[in-house]
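step=predict obj=Transposase n=309
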Amino acid sequence: MAGRVVKRAFKFRFYPTVVQADQLARTFGCTRYVYNRALAERSRAWSQEGRRVTYADTSKMLTGWKRDAETEWLAEPSKGPLQESLRQLQGAFERFWRTQSRYPQFKRMGQSKDSATYFSNCFTYRGGQVRLAKQSEPLDIRWSRPLPEGAAPSQVTVSRNARAKARLKVAKIHGRIADRRRDYLHKLSTRLVRENQVIAVEDLSVRNMVKNRSLSRAISDAGWSEFRSMLEYKADWYGRRVVAVDRFCPSSKTCSVCGEVASTMPLNVREWACRCGVVHDRDVNAARNILAVGLTVAACGDGVRPPRT
């Protein structure tokens, strides 16, 4: 049986020269223009003609825009990032069609993250140095950790922090916070996956939970979605299993000792006593129930819950 190819992403900071920064700024502007113009063309075709424009259609449009005297500057940057912006738009439409996200929005300077993706034919990697297409010097990358032995990047995505001075300071602070949170989540998820064969998590609707203004910041800071994603792909690496327990499973109000289900359990109740005499910490009790259901699902399959008395 042929082995699977597992791709991993590594994030490093780099400091461009003045020339590189100018080239990247123009590339970011071009990718944003291509994304927005393709979005406008797709929206117009659907609203006026009832016609769905495909990725292949927008790719042909891009070729025409490069030849147009008014937009011939689109030929200056590498073609890879421009094609990738069209792929990103296609992905945004596919998520919209699956009702996973809202209709794609236009990218505005200063309000959206500037980024450009270069595939293997648009950069070189030799001797531990990365040189982007149409650039004479390699990027000054701070390799905070080594790449896996014998590995070479299959694609490179460069992004820029937000460009005004005040925003730059805030971006640096948020960047440090995000790096520390991501580092903690990586360490915790790796330890959990290495030490356990089965990990059970509750399938929470984070999108709906962050609508609660009192909890949204705390939920976002905790990085629940990112943590679950880390658990799932690392479990795949190590041959472990992550079980997502149905969010409607009454884990908080079910007694983990006798199985009695309380009639109500408001969020402000942090401890409660069951009729069997056991006093529960709400979160600890819920965790025990989630683990029990997760182990049962791992052994017997989906669609099971702890028995009720």
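step=describe
The mean pLDDT is 85.
step=end
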